[in-house]
Amino acid sequence: FQAHDEKNAAAFFITRLLESMLDALKRLRRSEDRDRLRLSGWECHHYMTAN
Q1: What is the C-alpha separation between 34 and 43, in angstroms, rounded?
Q2: What digits encode the pLDDT tens for the residues 2-31?
Q3: Which domain of life is it from (predicted)?
Q4: Domain of 7, in residue numbers
């Protein structure tokens, strides 16, 4: 019975860990997208002024 509880606790912990990692990845990707948008905007502006 105790081993079963420990297994549940481990599963819960792993699930929480995965969820927090996914959240971190989402935040990271969001900031990367912001940087990419800013970069592409700058590239468009540079291209327009260069030509």
Answers
A1: 14
A2: 778 888 999 999 999 999 999 999 998 888
A3: Eukaryota
A4: 1-51
